[in-house]
């Protein structure tokens, strides 16, 4: 695969991740109790409020991922992909550690999405050419 194709791949993963986070954010803001129910958790006004706050934070993250995927330099795309590889894996782990008696089908699916994105970022990073200084300038 050519170097340019590898950064295209990472840009597509970032764009797709932004889309998934954007939909998650909308669901969290509009109907946090449904999201909680899907995760197997009981909703309370406090938990719903916290989920809405997380949803709003995801809007910012999705917007940043979208922007980097379209306009970021290759070094910025690479840096964002490294951050997201770790974050997506963390999302998968934390989803499986939800404090409920029994995990739901949605818990497993949501964790799989996190692990899948982490894997996709790692594949792109492994194939991407190494850029001199690892900071996104």
Describe the structure in your own words.
- By secondary structure, the protein is mostly helical.
- It has one domain (3-127).
- The protein has helices spanning 3-30, 32-39, 45-71, 74-96, 105-127.
- The model has no long low-confidence stretch (mean pLDDT 92).
Layout of helices and strands, plus pairs?
Layout: H1 3-30, H2 32-39, H3 45-71, H4 74-96, H5 105-127
Helix pairs in contact: 1-2, 1-3, 1-4, 1-5, 4-5
Outline:
The chain is an all-alpha fold and 137 residues long. It is 80% helix and 0% strand. The chain has 5 helices and no strands.
Keywords:
single chain; 137 residues; mainly alpha; 5 helices; 80% helix; elongated
- The level of helicity is over 70%
Radius of gyration: 16 Å
The secondary-structure class comes to mainly alpha
Largest sheet: none
Number of helix segments? 5
When the domains are counted, the total is: 1
Nearest-integer average pLDDT: 92
Overall morphology: elongated
Portion in beta strands: under 5%
User: Poorly predicted ranges (pLDDT <50, ≥5 residues)?
Assistant: none
